[in-house]
Specification:
Elements: H1 3-27, E1 33-37, E2 41-48, H2 59-86, H3 91-117, E3 145-150, E4 154-158, E5 170-173, E6 177-178, H4 180-199
Antiparallel strand pairs: 1-2, 2-3, 3-6, 4-5
Helix pairs in contact: 1-3, 2-3, 3-4
């Protein structure tokens, strides 16, 4: 696989991810929800501090740490992709690594720049954020990641009372709200786990053993 193919796939994912995020950010107020395919696929606008599927990590300091870690991962990923392409790794593995790489860049862009290029969307005022306002809602590295993909396939269900920990509580599948970057990372990781044997299968080598002898070889002598 050529490096330009990796670049094109990365740009395609980033275009889809950032395009949808910017559209939602400038057309939805926080908490707004729209059905796309019935009630099981919805666009539901939320923002989070940077972890996948809305998870949080350690307030402002944790937010900056996570952003810097993601930046380091993207820099490392650039060199790693070049290495595995040059060494001729399995095409499927390179594609999976690219999915993870592109997803990391997608969320990194939110964390680094969205606080600078957007203002706030207030769920009470139900206003949409403006792109490139006079002043953003946060500083560099402190932007929030935009999530919107919501698939509540099973709703209005309950855990039985005998069920450990969550007995009697409401049950919903699939509850997390995520974005295209999250989906790209998750898909890349899952495919690597599922197909790791074929991705990392070593080529079989034939070994030939040569027997040397000082004995004369003719029709009457057998070399074993």
């Amino acid at each position: 696989m050529k490096f330009r193919t990796v670049v094109l796939l990365t740009l395609l994912i980033l275009f889809a991810d950032q395009g949808l995020k910017i559209w939602v950010k400038t057309h939805f107020y926080i908490g707004k929800e729209v059905n796309v395919l019935g009630s099981w696929f919805r666009l539901h606008f939320i923002e989070n501090e940077g972890m996948a599927y809305g998870w949080k990590f350690g307030g402002d300091m944790g937010k900056m740490t996570l952003t810097l870690f993601r930046l380091f991962a993207v820099i490392f990923g650039t060199f790693y992709l070049q290495k595995i392409i040059k060494q001729g790794y399995h095409k499927g593995f390179i594609i999976c690594a690219t999915l993870i790489y592109a997803g990391a860049i997608g969320n990194l862009i939110d964390s680094m720049f969205y606080g600078l290029i957007f203002d706030n969307s207030d769920p009470y005022l139900q206003n949409t954020a403006r792109l490139f306002p006079p002043q953003g809602y946060a500083g560099f590295l402190h932007g929030k990641v935009v999530d919107m993909l919501y698939f509540p396939i099973i709703t209005d269900a309950h855990f039985p009372r005998w069920f450990p920990v969550w007995g009697g509580e409401d049950f919903e599948f699939f509850r997390p709200v995520f974005n295209i970057a999250d989906a790209s990372i998750s898909l890349g990781v899952i495919l690597i786990l599922v197909f790791q044997k074929s991705f990392f299968q070593k080529k079989k080598q034939d070994f030939h053993t040569t027997v040397e002898t000082s004995s004369p070889v003719n029709d009457e002598v057998q070399v074993s």
